[in-house]
Amino acid sequence: MVLDSAQAQIDALLARLNPPQQEAVTHGDGPLLIFAGAGSGKTRVLTARIAYLIASHRVWPDRLLAVTFTNKAAREMRGRVEALVGEAAQKMWVGTFHWTAVRILRREAQRIGIIPSFVIFDEDDTRAALRRVLDELRLDPKRYPIGSLSNAISQAKSELKRPADIPNRSYQDEVLRRVYDSYQEVLRRSGGLDFDDLLMKLAELLSTDAEALAKWRDR
To answer: Vertex 79, ends 73 and 80: CA angle to 5°?
Structure first.
């Protein structure tokens, strides 16, 4: 049996972990916060934890979500789990925060007023859109550099601020609000979301739609 074989591998892996790592891997129900520095075996512990849940507790792989900061780390984690539990690992959700947001938003798009086939704007797309906005608003890109505007909009989105939430304390604030608002309109007309929108829209979905929150929390 595949899972029985996986269990034997996990038992062998557990034997190579130190007591705190073993405790993390075999933790029961409820949240667990782990503090660990670089090179302390975080990925090994998380990989073993996932495999342990699949093989020992018969948790369905498609009910597991592992979030990483980079695509490389996600591929590495999936590969390690697959080496332990086989093809079952392919049904897991393993990816970056943005990858996870994309998968959820495509399924729940209509709940927050976007189209499921939305286009993702990368950095070049964003700069092109901002150049268009500056032209439409007749703003000098030398006075209002695109890079600075892009960073300011990204910062606002990371704080979950919409254009109307930008404080109007100076003319610079007013310009930022106008540019931000026009940029969002370009995205809307294009059926697009930028990287910051992915996280912002997901936060909006889960904080305003109780049904969606319950659905994804219980999955």
So the answer is: 90
Q: Are residues 79 and 155 in the same domain?
A: no
- Say which CATH number the domain at 59 has: 3.40.50.300
β-strand 119-121 against 93-96: which pairing, if any?
unpaired
The DSSP H or E segment spanning 96 is strand 93-96
| Global pTM value | 0.86
Q: Are residue 163 and residue 127 in the same domain, yes or no?
A: yes
Closest CA to 149 of 132, 165, 190, 160: 132
Q: Is 93 helix (H, G, I), strand (E, B) or coil?
A: strand
Q: How far apart are CA 4 and CA 36, in angstroms?
A: 30
Q: What is the CA radius of gyration of the chain?
A: 22
The label of the residue with tokens 């990858």 reads: 99
Token pair belonging to 203: 């936060």
* β-strands 65-68, 93-96 pairing: parallel
The per-type count for the chain, helices as H runs and strands as E runs, is 10, 4
Measure the CA–CA gap between 170 and 189, rounded to whole angstroms: 29
Encode pLDDT of 23-80 as tens digits.
999 998 888 898 888 888 888 899 899 989 988 888 898 899 999 889 998 999 999 8
Distance from C-alpha of 184 to C-alpha of 87, rounded to nearest angstrom: 41
